[in-house]
Specification:
Elements lengths: L1 E2 L5 E2 L6 H10 L4 H4 L5 E2 L8 H12 L3 H14 L1
């Protein structure tokens, strides 16, 4: 997940997180993030397969904003 400049949260999957965040910040990433740069990586998980990543992305997208923020807080606390 990335936090956009307008404080919204964007969830997606990527094989190379650094490259994907750079794409979002350069304006060549997802349409949603193009007008909301810069973005900051705030949550990531390493999963075993593309299918597993897609399922987890869907699960996270179904969460409320409050629950996503708690997930992010736990990720940052683990540091």
């Amino acid at each position: 997940m990335v936090r956009c400049a307008d404080r919204t949260i964007y969830t997606g999957i990527a094989k190379d997180l650094g490259r994907r965040v750079a794409e979002h910040n350069s304006g060549s990433g997802a349409k949603y993030t193009r007008g909301r740069a810069p973005v900051e990586l705030v949550f990531a998980e390493d999963l075993n397969s593309h299918g597993e990543a897609l399922r987890r992305e869907y699960e996270i997208k179904q969460m409320s904003r409050a629950r996503k923020l708690r997930l992010i807080e736990g990720f940052i606390a683990k540091g």
